[in-house]
Specification:
Radius of gyration of chain B: 16 Å
Number of helices of chain B: 5
Order of helices and strands of chain A: HHHHHHHH
Strand content of chain A: under 5%
GO molecular function, one term (chain B): DNA binding
Pfam family, one (chain B): PadR
Largest sheet of chain A: none
Number of domains of chain B: 1
CATH superfamily of chain B: Winged helix-like DNA-binding domain superfamily/Winged helix DNA-binding domain
CATH class of chain B: Mainly Alpha
Distance between the termini of chain A: 32 Å
Number of strands of chain B: 3
Keywords (chain A): Membrane, Transmembrane, Transmembrane helix
Strand content of chain B: 15-25%
InterPro entries (chain B): Metal_resp_DNA-bind_regulator (IPR052509), Tscrpt_reg_PadR_N (IPR005149), WH-like_DNA-bd_sf (IPR036388), WH_DNA-bd_sf (IPR036390)
Keywords (chain B): DNA-binding
Number of helices of chain A: 8
Helix content of chain A: over 70%
Shape of chain B: globular
Structural class of chain A: mainly alpha
Shape of chain A: elongated
Helix content of chain B: 55-70%
Largest sheet of chain B: 3 strands, antiparallel
CATH architecture of chain B: Orthogonal Bundle
Strand order of the largest sheet of chain B: 1-3-2
Oligomer: heterodimer
Order of helices and strands of chain B: HHEHHEEH
Distance between the termini of chain B: 26 Å
Number of domains of chain A: 1
Structural class of chain B: alpha+beta
Protein backbone atom coordinates (compact mmCIF):
# COMPACT_ATOMS: atom_id res chain seq x y z
CA UNK A 1 0.00 0.00 0.00
CA UNK A 2 1.37 3.40 -0.91
CA UNK A 3 0.46 7.01 -0.19
CA UNK A 4 -1.14 8.70 -3.18
CA UNK A 5 0.36 11.97 -4.38
CA UNK A 6 -1.57 15.25 -4.26
CA UNK A 7 -1.92 15.19 -8.05
CA UNK A 8 -3.38 11.68 -7.94
CA UNK A 9 -5.79 12.64 -5.18
CA UNK A 10 -6.87 15.65 -7.24
CA UNK A 11 -7.46 13.38 -10.23
CA UNK A 12 -9.68 11.16 -8.09
CA UNK A 13 -11.63 14.17 -6.85
CA UNK A 14 -12.07 15.46 -10.40
CA UNK A 15 -13.31 12.08 -11.47
CA UNK A 16 -15.91 12.03 -8.68
CA UNK A 17 -16.92 15.64 -9.35
CA UNK A 18 -17.88 14.64 -12.91
CA UNK A 19 -20.63 12.48 -11.44
CA UNK A 20 -22.32 15.67 -10.07
CA UNK A 21 -23.45 14.05 -6.82
CA UNK A 22 -24.87 16.07 -3.94
CA UNK A 23 -25.09 13.50 -1.16
CA UNK A 24 -22.11 13.92 1.17
CA UNK A 25 -22.56 10.33 2.39
CA UNK A 26 -22.25 8.91 -1.12
CA UNK A 27 -19.37 11.21 -2.11
CA UNK A 28 -17.30 10.32 0.96
CA UNK A 29 -17.97 6.61 0.56
CA UNK A 30 -17.00 6.58 -3.13
CA UNK A 31 -13.93 8.73 -2.44
CA UNK A 32 -12.77 6.36 0.28
CA UNK A 33 -13.36 3.39 -2.03
CA UNK A 34 -11.35 4.99 -4.84
CA UNK A 35 -8.44 5.95 -2.58
CA UNK A 36 -8.37 2.59 -0.75
CA UNK A 37 -8.33 0.75 -4.08
CA UNK A 38 -5.75 2.92 -5.83
CA UNK A 39 -3.38 2.79 -2.86
CA UNK A 40 -2.86 -0.88 -3.67
CA UNK A 41 -1.48 -0.19 -7.15
CA UNK A 42 1.83 1.29 -8.29
CA UNK A 43 2.01 4.73 -9.86
CA UNK A 44 2.24 3.44 -13.43
CA UNK A 45 -1.10 1.62 -13.09
CA UNK A 46 -2.92 4.56 -11.53
CA UNK A 47 -4.63 5.90 -14.66
CA UNK A 48 -5.72 2.47 -15.82
CA UNK A 49 -7.14 1.57 -12.39
CA UNK A 50 -8.87 4.93 -12.07
CA UNK A 51 -10.56 4.33 -15.42
CA UNK A 52 -11.63 0.88 -14.27
CA UNK A 53 -13.18 2.37 -11.14
CA UNK A 54 -14.96 4.99 -13.24
CA UNK A 55 -16.46 2.20 -15.31
CA UNK A 56 -17.80 0.57 -12.15
CA UNK A 57 -19.01 3.80 -10.53
CA UNK A 58 -20.80 5.18 -13.56
CA UNK A 59 -22.90 8.38 -13.50
CA UNK A 60 -26.17 6.45 -13.59
CA UNK A 61 -25.08 3.91 -10.98
CA UNK A 62 -23.99 6.66 -8.56
CA UNK A 63 -27.23 8.60 -9.05
CA UNK A 64 -29.33 5.50 -8.57
CA UNK A 65 -27.36 4.72 -5.38
CA UNK A 66 -27.90 8.31 -4.22
CA UNK A 67 -31.64 8.19 -4.78
CA UNK A 68 -31.95 4.76 -3.10
CA UNK A 69 -29.96 6.06 -0.12
CA UNK A 70 -32.26 9.09 0.19
CA UNK A 71 -35.29 6.80 0.14
CA UNK A 72 -33.74 4.49 2.75
CA UNK A 73 -32.78 7.40 5.01
CA UNK A 74 -36.28 8.85 4.79
CA UNK A 75 -37.73 5.47 5.74
CA UNK A 76 -35.13 5.06 8.50
CA UNK A 77 -35.90 8.46 10.07
CA UNK A 78 -39.63 7.73 10.02
CA UNK A 79 -39.09 4.33 11.61
CA UNK A 80 -36.73 5.71 14.26
CA UNK A 81 -39.16 8.50 15.19
CA UNK A 82 -42.03 6.04 15.51
CA UNK A 83 -39.82 3.76 17.64
CA UNK A 84 -38.92 6.72 19.89
CA UNK A 85 -42.60 7.72 20.28
CA UNK A 86 -43.55 4.12 21.12
CA UNK A 87 -40.78 4.00 23.74
CA UNK A 88 -42.35 6.97 25.57
CA UNK A 89 -45.31 4.74 26.32
CA UNK A 90 -43.18 1.90 27.67
CA UNK A 91 -43.13 1.29 31.40
CA UNK A 92 -39.52 2.45 31.77
CA UNK A 93 -40.26 5.83 30.22
CA UNK A 94 -43.76 6.54 31.44
CA UNK A 95 -42.51 8.78 34.27
CA UNK A 96 -40.77 10.96 31.70
CA UNK A 97 -43.90 11.16 29.56
CA UNK A 98 -46.22 11.83 32.50
CA UNK A 99 -43.81 14.54 33.67
CA UNK A 100 -43.94 16.33 30.32
CA UNK A 101 -47.71 16.00 30.07
CA UNK A 102 -48.13 17.28 33.63
CA UNK A 103 -46.03 20.36 32.84
CA UNK A 104 -48.02 21.05 29.65
CA UNK A 105 -51.30 20.51 31.50
CA UNK A 106 -50.25 22.79 34.36
CA UNK A 107 -49.15 25.54 31.98
CA UNK A 108 -52.42 25.12 30.04
CA UNK A 109 -54.55 25.55 33.15
CA UNK A 110 -52.62 28.72 33.97
CA UNK A 111 -53.30 30.21 30.54
CA UNK A 112 -56.14 32.68 30.88
CA UNK A 113 -55.92 35.16 28.05
CA UNK A 114 -55.92 34.56 24.31
CA UNK A 115 -52.27 35.62 24.16
CA UNK A 116 -51.26 33.05 26.80
CA UNK A 117 -53.01 30.24 24.92
CA UNK A 118 -51.21 31.32 21.75
CA UNK A 119 -47.89 31.19 23.62
CA UNK A 120 -48.78 27.70 24.79
CA UNK A 121 -49.58 26.56 21.26
CA UNK A 122 -46.44 28.01 19.76
CA UNK A 123 -43.96 26.88 22.43
CA UNK A 124 -43.27 23.43 20.86
CA UNK A 125 -42.99 25.14 17.47
CA UNK A 126 -40.37 27.49 18.89
CA UNK A 127 -38.55 24.39 20.10
CA UNK A 128 -38.60 23.02 16.54
CA UNK A 129 -37.35 26.33 15.18
CA UNK A 130 -34.43 26.31 17.63
CA UNK A 131 -33.71 22.74 16.66
CA UNK A 132 -33.66 23.76 12.99
CA UNK A 133 -31.06 26.44 13.72
CA UNK A 134 -28.91 24.03 15.75
CA UNK A 135 -29.26 21.37 13.05
CA UNK A 136 -28.18 23.84 10.38
CA UNK A 137 -25.15 24.88 12.43
CA UNK A 138 -24.00 21.33 13.17
CA UNK A 139 -24.61 20.28 9.57
CA UNK A 140 -22.49 23.16 8.27
CA UNK A 141 -19.71 22.21 10.69
CA UNK A 142 -19.67 18.55 9.67
CA UNK A 143 -20.17 19.06 5.96
CA UNK A 144 -17.61 21.84 5.56
CA UNK A 145 -14.50 19.60 5.13
CA UNK A 146 -16.24 17.56 2.41
CA UNK A 147 -17.49 20.73 0.69
CA UNK A 148 -13.96 22.12 0.79
CA UNK A 149 -12.45 18.92 -0.64
CA UNK A 150 -14.98 18.83 -3.48
CA UNK A 151 -15.10 22.55 -4.19
CA UNK A 152 -16.52 23.22 -7.66
CA UNK A 153 -18.68 20.10 -7.59
CA UNK A 154 -21.42 21.76 -9.65
CA UNK A 155 -24.19 21.12 -7.15
CA UNK A 156 -24.41 21.99 -3.46
CA UNK A 157 -23.19 19.12 -1.33
CA UNK A 158 -25.46 18.25 1.58
CA UNK A 159 -26.14 15.38 3.90
CA UNK A 160 -28.85 12.97 2.75
CA UNK A 161 -30.26 13.23 6.27
CA UNK A 162 -30.79 16.98 5.97
CA UNK A 163 -33.83 17.06 3.63
CA UNK A 164 -35.98 14.46 5.41
CA UNK A 165 -35.20 15.99 8.81
CA UNK A 166 -35.93 19.53 7.57
CA UNK A 167 -39.19 18.36 6.06
CA UNK A 168 -40.21 16.82 9.35
CA UNK A 169 -39.28 20.06 11.13
CA UNK A 170 -41.36 22.13 8.73
CA UNK A 171 -44.42 19.90 8.81
CA UNK A 172 -45.85 21.02 12.19
CA UNK A 173 -45.05 24.65 11.36
CA UNK A 174 -47.05 24.33 8.12
CA UNK A 175 -49.81 22.50 9.99
CA UNK A 176 -49.98 25.27 12.60
CA UNK A 177 -50.22 27.88 9.84
CA UNK A 178 -53.00 25.92 8.21
CA UNK A 179 -54.88 25.54 11.49
CA UNK A 180 -54.73 29.26 12.02
CA UNK A 181 -55.51 30.54 8.55
CA UNK A 182 -57.73 27.86 7.00
CA UNK A 183 -60.74 28.36 9.35
CA UNK A 184 -60.55 32.06 8.52
CA UNK A 185 -62.17 31.27 5.16
CA UNK A 186 -65.32 29.92 6.85
CA UNK A 187 -65.58 31.65 10.21
CA UNK A 188 -65.31 35.25 11.32
CA UNK A 189 -64.11 34.27 14.75
CA UNK A 190 -61.65 31.79 13.28
CA UNK A 191 -59.54 31.23 16.34
CA UNK A 192 -62.27 30.12 18.70
CA UNK A 193 -61.62 26.38 18.22
CA UNK A 194 -57.90 26.70 18.68
CA UNK A 195 -58.25 28.92 21.71
CA UNK A 196 -60.49 26.50 23.57
CA UNK A 197 -58.23 25.32 26.45
CA UNK A 198 -58.94 21.61 25.86
CA UNK A 199 -58.13 21.88 22.13
CA UNK A 200 -55.06 23.99 22.83
CA UNK A 201 -53.76 21.47 25.39
CA UNK A 202 -54.31 18.50 23.04
CA UNK A 203 -52.59 20.24 20.14
CA UNK A 204 -49.71 21.37 22.36
CA UNK A 205 -49.24 17.85 23.72
CA UNK A 206 -49.14 16.40 20.20
CA UNK A 207 -46.68 19.05 19.00
CA UNK A 208 -44.53 18.58 22.12
CA UNK A 209 -44.37 14.81 21.66
CA UNK A 210 -43.53 15.30 17.99
CA UNK A 211 -40.82 17.90 18.70
CA UNK A 212 -39.18 15.87 21.49
CA UNK A 213 -39.21 12.65 19.48
CA UNK A 214 -37.68 14.42 16.49
CA UNK A 215 -34.97 15.88 18.72
CA UNK A 216 -34.21 12.39 19.98
CA UNK A 217 -34.01 11.09 16.40
CA UNK A 218 -31.50 13.82 15.63
CA UNK A 219 -29.52 12.90 18.74
CA UNK A 220 -29.42 9.24 17.67
CA UNK A 221 -28.55 9.95 14.04
CA UNK A 222 -25.99 12.66 14.77
CA UNK A 223 -23.77 10.01 16.37
CA UNK A 224 -23.26 8.29 13.04
CA UNK A 225 -24.40 10.68 10.29
CA UNK A 226 -23.22 14.00 8.90
CA UNK A 227 -25.89 16.00 10.73
CA UNK B 1 -23.13 -17.66 -16.13
CA UNK B 2 -20.90 -15.66 -13.84
CA UNK B 3 -20.60 -16.16 -10.09
CA UNK B 4 -22.11 -12.71 -9.64
CA UNK B 5 -25.55 -13.93 -10.64
CA UNK B 6 -25.28 -16.82 -8.19
CA UNK B 7 -24.23 -14.74 -5.20
CA UNK B 8 -26.75 -11.94 -5.77
CA UNK B 9 -29.35 -13.54 -3.52
CA UNK B 10 -26.85 -14.32 -0.78
CA UNK B 11 -25.09 -10.97 -0.66
CA UNK B 12 -26.86 -9.79 2.49
CA UNK B 13 -25.96 -13.05 4.26
CA UNK B 14 -22.33 -12.71 3.19
CA UNK B 15 -22.17 -9.13 4.50
CA UNK B 16 -23.83 -10.03 7.81
CA UNK B 17 -21.57 -13.08 8.29
CA UNK B 18 -18.41 -11.08 7.59
CA UNK B 19 -19.47 -8.39 10.01
CA UNK B 20 -20.20 -11.01 12.63
CA UNK B 21 -16.62 -12.24 12.35
CA UNK B 22 -15.06 -8.80 12.09
CA UNK B 23 -16.12 -6.16 14.53
CA UNK B 24 -16.48 -3.39 11.92
CA UNK B 25 -15.64 -3.07 8.23
CA UNK B 26 -15.81 -0.49 5.47
CA UNK B 27 -17.09 -1.07 1.94
CA UNK B 28 -13.80 -1.65 0.16
CA UNK B 29 -12.58 -3.89 2.97
CA UNK B 30 -15.62 -6.16 2.50
CA UNK B 31 -14.91 -6.60 -1.23
CA UNK B 32 -11.26 -7.40 -0.48
CA UNK B 33 -12.09 -9.85 2.32
CA UNK B 34 -14.47 -11.82 0.07
CA UNK B 35 -11.85 -11.87 -2.68
CA UNK B 36 -9.23 -13.08 -0.20
CA UNK B 37 -11.43 -15.79 1.38
CA UNK B 38 -12.48 -17.20 -2.01
CA UNK B 39 -9.02 -16.75 -3.55
CA UNK B 40 -10.46 -14.38 -6.13
CA UNK B 41 -13.24 -16.77 -7.22
CA UNK B 42 -15.98 -14.48 -5.94
CA UNK B 43 -15.78 -10.77 -6.49
CA UNK B 44 -18.47 -8.63 -4.92
CA UNK B 45 -19.28 -5.85 -7.33
CA UNK B 46 -19.48 -2.33 -5.99
CA UNK B 47 -22.75 -2.00 -7.88
CA UNK B 48 -24.36 -4.50 -5.56
CA UNK B 49 -22.40 -3.97 -2.36
CA UNK B 50 -23.21 -0.36 -1.45
CA UNK B 51 -26.98 -0.54 -2.11
CA UNK B 52 -27.06 -3.74 0.00
CA UNK B 53 -25.15 -2.05 2.84
CA UNK B 54 -27.44 1.00 2.74
CA UNK B 55 -30.53 -1.22 2.73
CA UNK B 56 -29.30 -3.26 5.71
CA UNK B 57 -28.53 -0.02 7.53
CA UNK B 58 -32.03 1.33 6.88
CA UNK B 59 -33.53 -1.96 8.06
CA UNK B 60 -31.69 -1.54 11.36
CA UNK B 61 -29.38 -4.54 10.83
CA UNK B 62 -26.26 -2.42 10.60
CA UNK B 63 -25.03 0.65 12.35
CA UNK B 64 -22.38 3.01 11.05
CA UNK B 65 -19.50 4.94 12.45
CA UNK B 66 -17.64 7.74 10.73
CA UNK B 67 -13.91 8.07 11.18
CA UNK B 68 -11.31 10.43 9.78
CA UNK B 69 -8.60 8.48 7.91
CA UNK B 70 -5.76 10.31 6.08
CA UNK B 71 -7.73 13.49 5.40
CA UNK B 72 -10.83 11.64 4.26
CA UNK B 73 -13.92 10.31 5.96
CA UNK B 74 -14.41 6.57 6.23
CA UNK B 75 -17.72 4.90 7.00
CA UNK B 76 -17.48 1.72 9.06
CA UNK B 77 -20.36 -0.73 9.28
CA UNK B 78 -21.03 -3.02 12.22
CA UNK B 79 -23.88 -5.28 13.32
CA UNK B 80 -26.69 -4.08 15.53
CA UNK B 81 -28.38 -6.42 18.02
CA UNK B 82 -31.08 -7.10 15.41
CA UNK B 83 -28.36 -7.75 12.85
CA UNK B 84 -26.68 -10.27 15.16
CA UNK B 85 -29.96 -12.14 15.52
CA UNK B 86 -30.52 -12.01 11.76
CA UNK B 87 -27.13 -13.62 10.96
CA UNK B 88 -28.06 -17.02 12.36
CA UNK B 89 -31.50 -16.92 10.71
CA UNK B 90 -29.99 -15.98 7.34
CA UNK B 91 -27.23 -18.58 7.70
CA UNK B 92 -29.61 -21.47 8.39
CA UNK B 93 -31.83 -20.27 5.52
CA UNK B 94 -28.84 -20.29 3.16
CA UNK B 95 -27.54 -23.64 4.42
CA UNK B 96 -30.95 -25.22 3.92
CA UNK B 97 -31.10 -23.74 0.40
CA UNK B 98 -27.63 -25.09 -0.45
CA UNK B 99 -28.67 -28.50 0.93
CA UNK B 100 -31.80 -28.54 -1.23
CA UNK B 101 -29.82 -27.43 -4.27
CA UNK B 102 -27.37 -30.22 -3.61
CA UNK B 103 -30.23 -32.73 -3.46
CA UNK B 104 -31.53 -31.51 -6.81
CA UNK B 105 -28.13 -31.68 -8.46
CA UNK B 106 -27.20 -34.99 -6.92
CA UNK B 107 -30.16 -37.06 -5.66
CA UNK B 108 -27.72 -39.59 -4.13
CA UNK B 109 -26.23 -36.89 -1.90
CA UNK B 110 -26.82 -37.18 1.83
CA UNK B 111 -26.18 -34.33 4.28
CA UNK B 112 -22.95 -34.89 6.22
CA UNK B 113 -21.32 -36.90 3.44
CA UNK B 114 -18.30 -35.37 1.80
Amino acid sequence: MRQLTDIELQEIRNSIKKKVLYSAEIIMEIYDHYVSHLQNYPEDQFTEQLMELDQKFTYSYCHSMQSKLNKNINMDIGKTQWMVIKKYFCTSRWVFLVGILAVVFFVATQARSEREVKFLLFSPLALLLLMHLALGYQWMKRIFPIKKTFKGNGVTIKSSFMTPLSMRLHMPLTLANMMIYFPKIFFDDYGFLLLMPAAAVSITILFTLYAISLMEVWKIKSKTALI
Amino acid sequence: MSNNNLIKGSLQTIILKLLEENDRMYGYEITQRVKELTEGEIKITEGALYPALHKLEAEGMLTTEIQQVDNRVRKYYSLTKDGQKEVSAKMSELQSFVGNLQRILDPEWKPGLA
